Amino acid sequence: MTEEEFDNRLVETLDGFLETLAESPDVNLDRFYTMTCLLENLRFFSPVLYSAIKNKE
Q1: Which of 23, 42, 46, 57 is 20 to 30 A distant from 6 in Cα terms?
Q2: Cα separation of 34 and 1, whole Å?
Q3: For residues 46 and 7, is the Cβ–Cβ distance under 8 A?
Q4: Cα–Cα distance for residue pair 31/35, rounded to 1 Å
């Protein structure tokens, strides 16, 4: 898997997770905002995550 493919899959996964949370009536809005910020930061570090996983292989 290339870095670009990894990045695309990560974005799809994170977006799907956020969409599921957003559709849930039980989600606390303050916590949802915090989770959204956390996941956005995780998305920003996608190249670092890719390098860490690639090096373990």
Answers
A1: 23
A2: 30
A3: yes
A4: 6
pLDDT at res. 27: 86
- Residue 35 predicted with pLDDT over 70: yes
Instruction: Look at residue 9 in the predicted model and tell me its pLDDT.
Output: 94
CA–CA separation, 28 vs 34, rounded Å? Answer: 10
DSSP secondary structure, 18-39, as one string:
HHHHHH-TT--HHHHHHHHHHH
Phi-psi region of 14 (alpha: psi -120 to 50; beta: other; left: phi over 0): alpha
| Per-residue pLDDT at 57 | 64
Instruction: Count how many Cα atoms sit within 13 Å of the Cα of residue 10 in the half-sphere of its side chain.
Output: 20
